[in-house]
Write a structure and sequence with these properties.
The complex is a heterodimer of chains A (459) and B (173).
Chain A lengths: L17 H13 L4 H27 L14 H12 L2 H11 L9 H23 L25 H34 L2 H10 L7 H34 L11 H27 L8 H32 L2 H12 L3 H13 L7 H4 L2 H27 L15 H24 L5 H11 L4 H7 L1
Helix pairs in contact in A: 1-16, 2-15, 3-5, 3-9, 3-14, 4-5, 4-8, 5-6, 5-9, 5-15, 6-7, 6-8, 8-9, 9-10, 9-14, 10-11, 10-12, 11-12, 11-14, 12-14
Chain B lengths: L4 E7 L2 H13 L6 E3 L7 H4 L7 H27 L16 H23 L20 E6 L7 H10 L4 E6 L1
Antiparallel strand pairs in B: 1-3, 1-4, 2-3
The chains are: A mainly alpha (459), B alpha+beta (173).
Chain lengths: 459, 173
């Protein structure tokens, strides 16, 4: 039975009926693409083409097109990788963790968040493949039999764990997303005719909405959520192991796994916030993604931002307390060395700015929320840059100390990932329902003002 | 297969359907299946279905994943090509936990989902019987196979109407 506290805000505004939900959300899938969509999609494709040309050049010419040098061997590429993987955490987190916690507000945003996750993970993986320099040898990362070489992959290596973690996360996220889509694809199939009916019919794999199927479906979703929750946490934990298991001062810390996971949730929610704030306006979904949703997202951003802030301070304290000179220097160099500006950019964007959300007025202001979400993601990019580059650029040997300056190759390959991300997201937003209709319908009654009598009857 | 004739009761609300199902089954009418646009909790129980046990599939596939992963890492690192890394153990268990965990989750998730598709006869070429196209939009539909019921069409139709159906249609499949 749905029991809803009377003080809680309604999740869907303006007394939508079940049919209104179907109409509102199927509209953009069934209609012709709008002019706005064509413009933004066109821009994304142009950006993607520009980036793709540079990625091709990166492979053709070699990693020399990047600004790497003999001291800083990892810079923007791995920064971008960790940044995108972090962003890719929000989707499954929203769907899986919030499902386990029975947070009904997730229903309006989980679909778009999961799609975003999948595209973000693809962007992340693209940096690994770029960094390989010779992408046609990517299969070397897989545990293939000895005829391909003399050795197996080393299962002690966090980089191999990463291959397994990211590919498992990607596959399971796709599966979770697709299973969530099936009932909605069936809705579109049943409304369509001709080719669209055939295509969506094949995608809906024969879903009818029978009671037995729904019971099993709910069971599958719950178990998938239970499996995905530790999976989400494991992925960024393993990404942090790439650093934490090394012996570089500034990387070699046990706080990395929880700190990276909190950071991932932080940046992921910020990216979801950005995308949903745009989507709700473009697709006129203000009744589904309400101020309440925005405010709740901002609360999670504040919470995770604060966790990340505490982690920054703890790192500093532990470095001082450890008594290890190299460790201490790494942190002093972070805050006051030649790259001080990146450290303070990170601190301002990630730790200070989300604290503004303690004020309800700011938390519920759409423009401010949008700008803050952008700031958070800038801050999170700098976090990874700070961790990676400032720990490397002054190593044990002062004669090899350098500075890192990005070159066009670094910048353009980063732009490529944006081109891909937005192209993919706009395609998704055109051809698939951006909001989970079936789930929104299931919370309609318990959370809509249209059903006060019914609500009383069921409570 | 001979054509079968179904009575299709259309309801406007999930809770009405839930009560109707209890009512109708109480009167001895056998229900073919109920179709709803979203999961109506308790409907499977009301129809007398057993508790879904997808967890069993997830567990079996998961444990298969665990075993495969352990076998893979143990055989490659400990047996086929052991590497001496600073004189350490050839097969250090803790460093294999990430791989074992990931493969467990991977197999459990995919195994369970494909078991679900298999049990529900779902696939890209599936040709489902759709009793009312609105059942994926805003209507809650009850299908009753007339051949499997002793009561006449008129009687069942009356029972459906009395229990709150807004429409009763006949569908031949």
């Amino acid at each position: 039975m749905h029991v809803v506290s009377p003080i809680r805000e309604t999740l869907v505004l303006n007394g939508k009926s079940y049919h209104d939900v179907t109409e509102d959300i199927c509209k953009q899938v069934e209609g012709k693409p709008t002019k706005e969509w064509k413009i933004v999609f066109g821009i994304s494709v142009l950006v993607l083409l520009y980036g793709a040309a540079w990625v091709f050049w990166t492979w053709w010419e070699g990693l020399g097109v990047w600004g790497l040098n003999k001291t800083v061997g990892w810079a923007w590429d791995i920064t971008n990788f960790v940044w995108w993987v972090g962003i890719g955490h929000a989707g499954t987190l929203i769907s899986a963790v919030l499902l386990l916690f029975r947070q009904k507000w997730r229903t309006s945003i989980n679909r778009a968040a999961e799609a975003m996750t999948i595209f973000a993970v693809i962007c992340a993986a693209s940096f690994i493949v770029m960094h390989m320099g010779r992408p046609w040898l990517a299969y070397f990362a897989l545990p293939l039999p000895n005829t391909f070489g003399s050795l197996w992959v080393n299962f002690n290596s966090p980089l191999v764990w990463d291959v397994f973690a990211i590919s498992t996360y990607f596959s399971v996220s796709c599966l979770f997303w697709y299973i969530g889509l099936i009932p909605d694809l069936a809705t579109i199939r049943d409304r369509a005719t001709g080719t669209r009916k055939k295509v969506y019919g094949a995608l809906a794999i024969g879903w009818t909405g029978g009671a037995r199927a729904w019971a099993r479906y709910e069971d599958v979703s719950l178990i998938l959520a239970g499996l995905s929750t530790p999976l989400v946490l494991s992925v960024h934990t393993i990404v942090s192991f790439d650093f934490a298991t090394s012996v570089i001062p500034g990387w070699h810390t046990t706080i990395f796994p929880p700190y990276f996971v909190a950071g991932a949730i932080f940046s992921g929610f910020a990216m979801v916030q950005n995308l949903m704030l745009v989507t709700r306006v473009v697709y006129k979904l203000e009744d589904y993604v309400t101020l309440e949703h925005i405010s709740l997202m901002n609360k999670i951003i504040t919470l995770t931002g604060s966790v990340v802030g505490i982690a920054y301070i703890t790192e500093f304290f532990i470095a001082a307390y450890s008594g290890v000179e190299y460790e201490q220097y790494a942190f002093i160099n972070r805050a006051s060395g030649p790259l001080w500006w990146s450290y303070w950019a990170m601190m301002t964007c990630n730790v200070l700015s989300p604290q503004l959300f303690w004020f309800k007025k700011i938390r519920e202001n759409i423009l401010v929320s949008f700008i803050m979400a952008v700031i958070v993601n800038i801050g999170m990019w700098f976090e990874r840059f700070v961790i990676i580059v400032t720990s490397l650029h002054r190593d044990y040997l002062p004669s090899s100390w350098t500075y890192f300056t990005p070159r066009m190759g670094d910048i353009s390959d980063y732009i490529f990932s944006f081109g891909f991300f937005f192209t993919a997201f706009f395609l998704f937003a055109k051809f698939l329902p951006v909001i989970n209709m079936a789930e929104v319908k299931s919370v309609l009654k318990s959370s809509s003002e249209k059903y006060p009598e019914k609500k009383k009857a069921t409570v | 297969m001979a054509d079968s004739k179904y009575l299709v009761g259309v309801f406007d609300d999930g809770d009405e359907l839930l009560h109707a199902v209890e009512d109708i089954r109480h009167q001895g009418v056998k229900i073919h299946e109920a179709y709803t646009p979203f999961a109506v909790h308790g409907l499977d129980r009301a129809l007398g279905y057993s508790f879904p046990r997808m967890g069993v599939a997830a567990f079996l596939f998961g444990i298969t994943g665990t075993c495969c992963a352990l076998l893979l890492t143990f055989w490659t690192m400990g047996v086929d090509w052991p590497i001496n890394i600073g004189g350490k153990n050839f097969f250090p268990f803790p460093t294999n936990i990430p791989i074992v965990f990931e493969l467990t989750v991977l197999l459990a998730a995919f195994g369970m989902s494909f078991t679900f598709f298999f049990m529900e006869d779902m696939g890209p070429t599936a040709k489902p019987i759709i009793f009312d196209v609105r059942s994926t939009d805003d209507k809650f539909v009850l299908a009753i196979d007339l051949a499997k019921n002793k009561l006449s069409e008129g009687d069942i139709s009356k029972i459906l109407k009395e229990s709150g159906a807004s429409e009763v249609n006949v569908k031949e499949v």
